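Suppose you are handed only two things: the residues of a chain and a line of SMILES describing pyridoxal-5'-phosphate. What would the bound structure be? This form records exactly that question and the answer produced for it, so the two can be stored side by side and reused later without any lookup.

QUESTION INPUTS
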Amino acid sequence: MKNKVIPYGKQSISQSDIDAVVDVLKSDWLTQGPAVPAFESAIAKYCGVNYACATNSATSALHIACLALGVGEGDIVWTSPISFVASSNCALYCGASIDFVDIDLETGNMAATALAKKLVLAKKRNKLPKVVIPVHLAGQSCDMAAINELAKEYNFKVIEDASHAIGAKYKAKPVGSCDYSDITVFSFHPVKIITSAEGGMAVTNCEVLDKSMKRLRSHGITNNPDEMTEPSHGPWYYQQLELGFNYRMTDMQAALGLSQLKQLDNFVSVRNDIATTYNHAFANSTVAHLTQSDDCYSSYHLYIVRLTQCNIEKHKSVITGMREQGIIAHLHYIPIHLQPYYQALGFSDGDFPNAEAYYKQAVTIPLHPTMTADEQQFVINTLIGLV
Ligand SMILES: *Cc1c(COP(=O)(O)O)cnc(C)c1O
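ANSWER OUTPUT
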């Protein structure tokens, strides 16, 4: 047992996933064929949302989501400091400036109360955000109803970074329904819930936003005569209307994603079972975990514990101690504002106290559908032995 490394997350690939990719390889289209729109339709149907735009990563989906919402120089975007750097880099790609909203220590998610407070101040200073990007940490939705109320009051747009949260539910509806946001973004990186190797998706109920994102992911080019500035010259004709990118997903990736989507509910159910076992195992210990809201069903991308009784040295020794036993404990995330690149933009230690306190306590322990009961018991015993 000790010799086998237990990663914190891992994809699970079935024979039907492999067959789906091989079928594409044998077909006429490796990219820009039928698999991408089929995957988009299936995701839209799953989420109960009107439109879906597949991309080569969630990072690029976040970028074109910001652009489609008109984010540019002089604009301000807010996100959570406890996220992957992609959640905030997307604003900087657009030439906008970035700021953060502190988290709720219990859930790790952007706190709607902190958002409300910051908005009051920002309004006085005439520095309101154009877009706010809540991040559904570990697979649990943020308090989207409260965030949506604030969006209406202060007139900002909302992009949900649901990179962790496909398959999750909020108020009994799938994350991605966009009931409380303009756009929701998913990631299909292999550590996430379902994978297309690299890949992402931006979903929305707004046709204009969808059209804009679909142009931006492919050089800003349109083949649709209705969008052109003059009559088409002929069947070869296309027009570049804006400066876009090559952010397209390939058909091999889309076929893998589509095949994985069929297993999504099963993956999330197994992840919830593993999380429940952890919850019970730690119930009478000093190991706390992120609390779950009653109106959320988490997809449990990550299982994050909080070592509220440990000092910094102890916290570090728990993570290194687990790694010495072959258990790849991790930490999601280093507060973004403390990254050297962000400190150079003017952020510093002390700016977001809850995010900083969270960083000193959080540990991600392994959770993935291919994990065995024995492996999980080994993780539990090792962690309890170390704290
Ligand atoms: C993984 C992740 C991303 C980026 O996803 P990619 O598909 O790798 O670009 C963005 N935001 C969060 C919160 C993530 O976890």
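WHAT STANDS OUT: The two ends are 21 Å apart (CA to CA). The mean pLDDT is 97.
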